[in-house]
Structures are given as C-alpha cells and as structure tokens.
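#onboarding

Welcome to the new folks! Below is a worked example of what a typical request in this channel looks like: someone posts a single protein sequence, and someone else replies with the predicted structure as tokens. Don't worry about understanding the tokens yet, we'll cover that in week two.

Example request:
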Amino acid sequence: MSTLTVQNIQGSSSSGNKIQVASGHVLNAPGHILQTVQGVKTDTFTSNSQTNFVDIGLSVAITPSSASSKVLVSYRVCTSVVVGGYSCALILVRGSTNIALGDADGNRVRVTTFAQSSSASAAGYVVYYQTADFLDSPNTTSATTYKLTARGWNSSAGSFYINRSEQDGNTANFTRGISTITAMEIAQ
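Example response:
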C-alpha cells in the first residue's frame, strides 16, 4: 500500500467544486457522519399492554458502509399515560435484540426510557417527550432496522398513548404530536 500526501484537494469548478467518491468506494474519515436516515410517526397509537412490550410503529433502517462503523441512534417519542401515576416505558431494539438497557437488578424491568404521570387531574392533558441517544456497534454491512417497543404499567387501566394525550377531546385544548427516530452512520 502506498501513501499519497498532499496539502490541498479541491474539486473542479465544472463539478461544482465537489470531490466525488466513485460508486462502490468509501472515503473513510474517522468520526465523520457517512449517512443519516430518519423514521417519522405522525399518527397515534394506543395500547393497554401491561406485560409485553409492543411495537409502536416507529422505525428506521440503515445499511452501514463498513462493519467497523458505529451507528448513533436518537429518538424523540411523544407519549402520554392514564392519570394517577401510570407509566409508559420504551425499549430501543436493533432487529429483534433489545439494546440501550439499564442494568439488571432483581425483578426490575430493564428499559431505555420511562415516563410517569402525576395524579393531578390536569395530567390527562399532558404529553411527555421521551428522548435518548445511543451509540451502537452493529458490526454489519447488512440493512439494520432500529425500532421502539413500549408497555404501560400499574394496572389494566394503565393504557399508554403515542402522539396524543390521554384526554383527547376534539377541541383546540388538545394536541397531536410527532415522534422521530434517527440513525447516523459514524466512520471509525
């Protein structure tokens, strides 16, 4: 292997001053973002699942250009729960594997993020944005899907809601939210 050392590289004016990497080739610049993809959910989702984590319909797929790449996954999910101390937990999943979890400790449930309502009556109008960033090492050049699963807590009444508040009247007092998940390939 040989090394080419130069002081400056620039694209020609005919190429719009861009330096292009030929198809099928990769320019490796450690720490740089190679690609960014995003999944968006604007519709609502409701579940009263209290034991199983269910797919909320928010995902993103990315195909790393190198097996050594890291993938920075970020999400922002609009959640709401039943008034009275009920909760909603989210788990970040790669393929079918739960990732970005807290430590195992007794019977406690390992999750990525968690939000709990207050007991105040106005809590039914409130949404809670759950957010997280996780630098993953998928070690693959195959298409990789990241998604979010969720479950409620505390009783059969403990439903959770995505992109809406628990109280959801058709007036200007209520809102609709948006949830996103973003994956960025980071060169190593």
